[in-house]
């Protein structure tokens, strides 16, 4: 008798509650005539975000003094070797860093098996790092 009561009463109530909870979490989706968030292509996002904003910020922070950074859980007394090389020889290190980043992105953990998205990410690294080296060089010249 108890099992039958459980099956007849409790399971439909749980089913209705599950639908109600999922409805409250997701909410209503309505069609409107406005476009709130227009998706942009991957290449355009790379040029706008990475090459526009992130590269400039990374170049500025590359040239900052190491003592000005917060070193939470970083126990070394100086910045990594790659940053030292990029500070000292920004144009000479730009191409080798880009090529190394290309191969590291493409061949780390079998990323080459992904096909075009992995190749696209590797090409973005190949473009980004030489541009970053150029920006570091330009900012370094401006400081001197």
Q: Radius of gyration in whole Å, from Cα?
A: 26 Å
**Could you tell me the strand content as a percent range?**
under 5%
Number of strands: 0
Question: What's the end-to-end separation, in Å?
Answer: 88 Å
Helix content: over 70%
Spans of at least 5 consecutive residues with low confidence: none
Largest sheet: none
Mean pLDDT across every amino acid position: 77
Structural class: mainly alpha
Q: What is the helix/strand order?
A: HHHHH
Total number of domains: 1
Separate helix tally? 5
- The global form is elongated
How would you explain this protein's 3D organization?
With about 140 residues, the chain is mainly α. The chain has one domain. About 70% of the residues lie in helices and about 0% in strands. It is built from 5 helices and no strands. It is elongated, with a radius of gyration of 26 Å. The chain starts with a helix and ends with a helix.
Short description:
The chain has 144 residues and is mainly alpha-helical. It has helices at 2-26, 42-63, 81-88, 90-107, 116-143.
Attribute tags:
mainly alpha; 5 helices
Write the layout of secondary structure elements.
Blueprint: H1 2-26, H2 42-63, H3 81-88, H4 90-107, H5 116-143
Helix pairs in contact: 2-5, 3-4, 4-5
């Amino acid at each position: 008798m108890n099992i039958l009561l459980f099956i007849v009463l409790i399971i439909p109530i749980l089913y209705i509650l599950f639908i109600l909870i999922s409805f409250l979490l997701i909410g209503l989706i309505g069609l409107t005539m406005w476009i709130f968030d227009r998706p942009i292509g991957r290449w355009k996002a790379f040029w706008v975000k990475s090459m526009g904003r992130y590269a400039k910020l990374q170049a500025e922070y590359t040239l900052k003094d190491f003592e000005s950074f917060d070193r939470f859980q970083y126990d070394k007394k100086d910045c990594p070797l790659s940053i030292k090389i990029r500070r000292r020889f920004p144009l000479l290190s730009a191409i080798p860093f880009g090529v190394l980043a290309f191969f590291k992105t493409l061949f780390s953990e079998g990323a080459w098996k992904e096909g075009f998205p992995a190749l696209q990410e590797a090409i973005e690294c190949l473009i980004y790092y030489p541009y970053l080296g150029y920006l570091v060089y330009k900012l370094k010249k401006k400081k001197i």
